[in-house]
Amino acid sequence: MEKVIEVRNLHKSFGSLEVLKDISFNVEKGEVLCIIGPSGSGKSTLLRCLNRLEEIQAGDIEVFSTNVTKVKNINKFREKIGMVFQLFNLFPNYTVAQNIMLAPVQLGLMNKKQADAKALALLQKVGLEEKKDVYPETLSGGQKQRIAIARALAMNPQIMLFDEPTSALDPEMVGEVLKVMRSLADSGMTMVVVTHEMNFAREVANRVIFMADGYIVEEDSPKKLFTNPSNKRTQAFLSSVL
Ligand code: ADP
Ligand code: MG
């Protein structure tokens, strides 16, 4: 197995508040790791540390065997890691296709023609090819999030990070976004997914981490963690959400 993310003894504080306490875990190529846990437990901060959106106080994070804190060209490094947030942050004054292709074209990775073809292929992947030329304001929340996923994929990332991608959606739109994520997982993408969708974690994750209070409390296969968690805090959390 090829390790693509390796986190060792990570500590992260905001001022005097320590929010990540001695976090260690690995992610193998092609794996889907789901991170669950109560609000405020440090899940978003942990994701943000992986592509150095946050500086860390102690520990090591290696992504593709590169020490994240020592990366020279951070933008080049981040091209390999797609990120999708709870709020989609599409650019309102650009069409859907322009939103998807803006970064690769601006960075000179593709010409206009290649970008058009790529945008169309990605729109087909997320089932929205008919929305190519509309503006984001005309889309539903679920459609916006599928476009945000397509936009992240436009850079040909090797890892995708998701931070509660369905939490801001109306319930009837959650399924369409999870479906896109599921097919991405099936295609072999390496994914780290912070989610409250326990069914998704149970069915799609290779491993699940339960975080509370800045710690990894439990890490296991979804089968074990959801049916027979060994830690009391995991049990209490699961019984409150399931
Ligand atoms: P989660 O995603 O699990 O809800 P977060 O990683 O967002 O948790 O937050 C973990 C803790 O860190 C919380 O106590 C939160 O208030 C705090 N925190 C997050 N971001 C910042 C920040 N930029 N400055 C200060 N405190 C922060
Ligand atoms: Mg969060």
UniProtKB/TrEMBL annotation:
<keyword id="KW-0547">Nucleotide-binding</keyword>
<keyword id="KW-0029">Amino-acid transport</keyword>
<dbReference type="InterPro" id="IPR027417">
    <property type="entry name" value="P-loop_NTPase"/>
</dbReference>
<keyword id="KW-1003">Cell membrane</keyword>
<dbReference type="InterPro" id="IPR030679">
    <property type="entry name" value="ABC_ATPase_HisP-typ"/>
</dbReference>
<keyword id="KW-0813">Transport</keyword>
<dbReference type="InterPro" id="IPR003439">
    <property type="entry name" value="ABC_transporter-like_ATP-bd"/>
</dbReference>
<dbReference type="InterPro" id="IPR050086">
    <property type="entry name" value="MetN_ABC_transporter-like"/>
</dbReference>
<dbReference type="InterPro" id="IPR017871">
    <property type="entry name" value="ABC_transporter-like_CS"/>
</dbReference>
<dbReference type="GO" id="GO:0005524">
    <property type="term" value="F:ATP binding"/>
</dbReference>
<keyword id="KW-0472">Membrane</keyword>
<dbReference type="InterPro" id="IPR003593">
    <property type="entry name" value="AAA+_ATPase"/>
</dbReference>
<keyword id="KW-0067">ATP-binding</keyword>
<protein>
    <submittedName>
        <fullName>Polar amino acid transport system ATP-binding protein</fullName>
    </submittedName>
</protein>
<comment type="similarity">
    <text>Belongs to the ABC transporter superfamily.</text>
</comment>
<dbReference type="Pfam" id="PF00005">
    <property type="entry name" value="ABC_tran"/>
</dbReference>
<feature type="domain" description="ABC transporter">
    <location>
        <begin position="5"/>
        <end position="238"/>
    </location>
</feature>
